[in-house]
Every structure is written in C-alpha cells, then in structure tokens.
Design brief:
This protein is of the alpha/beta class and 261 residues long. It has a single domain, classed as Rossmann fold. The chain is built from nine helices and eleven strands. It is globular and about 50 Å long.
C-alpha cells in the first residue's frame, strides 16, 4: 500500500475532523501527499502540520466552503503548481441537520444539506475530474451513507442527498468508463464522530443517545476501508462499499444489547 501511494496526491474535503481527518491520518501513514481543506483553515492547518511532522510527508491546507461554486473554482485554480495534479479525490464534506418530520423541517437546514452534500460534491468533482482524464489516471471516492439506501423518519432530505450521491457516483462511473479513472461510493452506517452533535445543533446529550449501548463504527474504520479501496491494482474498481457496525442491519434496525425490552 505504501509503495502504491508514495508520491500520490490525495485531496480530502471536510478534512478537519471526523472521517475526513481519519482518512488524512490513514493516507499519511502510507506515504501520500495530502491536500486538505475545510471551511475554516485553523483546524485543518494544524492537522496538516501534525501529519507532516509525524510522517515527513508533504501537505497543503486551505480553506474551502464547497457550497460556494466560485470559491471552489478559484481555490482549485490558485493551488500551487505542485498541488494541481490530484490523483485521488475523497469527497467527504457533508452533514445532516435536524431530525424533524418532513412537514416540520427547517428550510435553512435543507438548503445547507443539499448545498453541501450534493452541490458541493458536484462543484469539486467537476473541477478536478478533467485534469484526471487528461493525465489518464485518477480515483474519486465519494463518502455516501447507509442513509442513501434506507430512508428513515425525520431524515427525508438528508437521506435524499445521500441517495443522490449514490446515483451521481454511478452516473459518473458510466461517463468515465472509457477512461482509466475509478469511481467509488463508500457508504458508512452509524459512525461515532461529531456527526450527531452537528445534526442536533450542538446538543451533546441528545447526540450521545444515538450511540448508546452499541459499539458503532469509528472514523478510523471508514478510513481504513477508503485506504483499501484506493490501493487496489489499476485494473480493479470497487464500485461501492456498504459498511456498518455489527449491531446495525439497516438505518433503524439496530440491536442495543445494553437495553432491556
């Protein structure tokens, strides 16, 4: 794996924490050059500095709000020349907001989820893929979700955005079938990150209930899977991976052995 990734440039969106940061750590440990971005520069720059110090790899961090189409275009065009040839793109930036019934949903939450999870992924991918085609090499890994397969109450819009990611990933793969590029949808189930804290607008107590009495996935589990996907031989394309903890069979089909009744 390390030999395969040596000298490869991996771009990760939403890299400051959670699955994005875990992917950065996993790929850094295997020799990749890391191009890391998130909405605010501070945390992602600290992560980049840490990984450079720990692994001796090259890193470049920059602020990017994937929802802003012009900002995406400008930021990627203004990258230093040595960072413009991206080998692997991990579209990780995304979020869920709220858990209200559809008829009670917050329109601002809906806009933010659609703009980040769908439109942001499109803006970044559209800007990077042509260069991959020109160089005859590249891999796009979209971080989807179990929610893209199984909708659940109170999350219709979030689930719809992740279903869109799955469909867009399939369509992109078809459009690139005559190129050496590979396209993957990596779909985690319940993963213990700040995901639920963000969903519940900072309510840590409510967020903690999501993972109570189970052993959920950790961000590192998803990152290790992303690494495996990215390091297959060039003739091998893993189209999609659905990964859950052992206690989860579908979005709301979860066994909590610590609870009675």
């Amino acid at each position: 794996m390390k030999q395969y990734l040596q000298g490869k440039t991996v771009c990760i969106t939403g890299a400051s924490d959670g699955i994005g940061a875990a992917c950065a750590r996993e790929f850094a440990a295997h020799g990749a050059r890391l191009l890391l971005c998130s909405r605010t520069l501070g945390n992602v720059q600290r992560l980049a500095d840490e990984l450079t110090s720990q692994y001796g790899i090259s890193t470049h961090a920059f602020a990017l709000d994937v929802r802003q189409r012009q900002q995406v275009s400008d930021a990627l065009e203004k990258l230093p020349p040595q960072w413009r040839a991206i080998d692997i793109l991990i579209n990780n930036a995304g979020l869920a907001l709220g858990l209200e019934a559809f008829q009670e949903g917050d329109l601002d939450d809906w806009d933010q989820m659609i703009d980040t999870n769908v439109k942001g992924l499109l803006y970044v991918t559209r800007k990077i893929v042509p260069g991959m085609i020109e160089r005859g090499s590249g891999h796009i890994i979209n971080i989807g979700s179990l929610a893209g397969r199984y909708a659940y109450p109170g999350a219709a819009v979030y689930c719809a955005t992740k279903a869109a990611v799955r469909t867009l990933t399939d369509g992109l793969r078809m459009d690139l079938v005559d190129t050496p590029l590979r396209v993957t949808d990596l779909q985690p189930g319940m993963t213990e990150t700040n995901f639920s804290k963000v969903r519940f607008h900072g309510d840590e107590e409510r967020a903690g209930q999501v993972y109570r009495d189970i052993d959920p996935l950790q961000a590192s589990d998803v990152a290790e899977t992303a690494l495996f996907i990215a390091t297959r031989p060039p003739h091998v394309q893993i189209q999609e991976v659905l990964i859950t903890c052992t206690s989860q069979a579908a979005s709301l089909v979860v066994h909590r052995p610590g609870r009675s009744g």
